[in-house]
Amino acid sequence: MDAETEKRVAAEAAALLVEDGMRVGLGTGSTVAHLLPALAARGLGIRCVATSVQTEEAARALGLEVDDAATVDRLDIAIDGADQIAPDWWLVKGGGAAHTREKVVAATTDRFVVIADSSKVVERLRAPVPLELMEYGLSSTLRRLHDVELRDVPRSPDGGVIADYTGAIGGPEALDAWLGSVPGVVAHGLFAPSMVSEVIIGRDESAERLARLI
Ligand code: 5RP
């Protein structure tokens, strides 16, 4: 089955989790692009926060209400895609360079739902792990990260430099802690299982709830 169908099936299943009156976090990417029309079609009275300019513009064009994230202290549900999903629900995100905002939204919400096509389910996480870096001290940060490549994309909307960590992942807990401790790293794309409430995978024409192993 083609990936677009699987993304749509997962996104439509997630849209059904949203209820009238909820505050909803919207992720970024081609899977979330299927979520937005499915959500708009439900005609619910909801208020949203978007993780990228692209999502914000698409959501508004569909008639969804989007608030300034600076004014929202809590969300009921957030729905977002992922680049890699391990059996224990460690994620790699940030293929679309929105991982800093996506991590803030994942931390803001009571329920973080991940949607993806079946190709995103992996046995173990692999590099690259997306990074957002401060411009200030960039050469020093790159030297200390060592295994890193700058990505040829525009700055993030928050002014960050987008790069990818290309070294070994090994245990994601240790890499999560190390990347998080490097001065100059604004955020990285490893998301811990504790952030994730559920994972919905499109497999052929069905939406499958992925059980968390370990
Ligand atoms: C953007 C992300 C996306 O959720 C991730 O890259 C998956 O994208 P897609 O749904 O296009 O496969 O983390 O920063």
Q: Sheet with the most strands?
A: 7 strands, mixed
Radius of gyration: 17 Å
> What proportion of the residues is helical, as a percent range?
25-40%
- CATH hierarchy class name of the largest domain: Alpha Beta
Structure annotation, total helices: 6
Number of domains: 2
* Structural class designation: alpha/beta
CATH fold node name of the largest domain: Rossmann fold
Which parts are unreliable, with pLDDT below 50 for 5 consecutive residues or more? Answer: none
**What's the architecture of the largest domain in CATH terms?**
3-Layer(aba) Sandwich
What features would you describe in this structure?
With 214 residues, this protein is of the alpha/beta class. It folds into 2 domains: 3-121 and 191-203, Rossmann fold; 129-188, ACT domain (Alpha-Beta Plaits, 2-Layer Sandwich), CATH 3.30.70. It has helices at residues 3-15, 32-42, 53-61, 99-108, 138-145, 172-181, and strands spanning 23-26, 47-50, 65-66, 77-80, 84-85, 91-92, 112-117, 129-133, 148-150, 161-165, 185-188, 190-191, 198-203, 206-209. Strands 3-2-1-4-7-13-14 form a 7-stranded mixed β-sheet, sandwiched between helices. The chain has a 4-stranded antiparallel β-sheet with strand order 9-10-8-11. The chain has a 3-stranded antiparallel β-sheet with strand order 5-6-12, covered by helices on one side. The longest helix has 13 residues, at 3-15. It starts with a helix and ends in a 5-residue tail after the last strand. Ribulose-5-phosphate binds next to α4. Ribulose-5-phosphate binds at residues 27-31, 80-83, 93-99, 102.
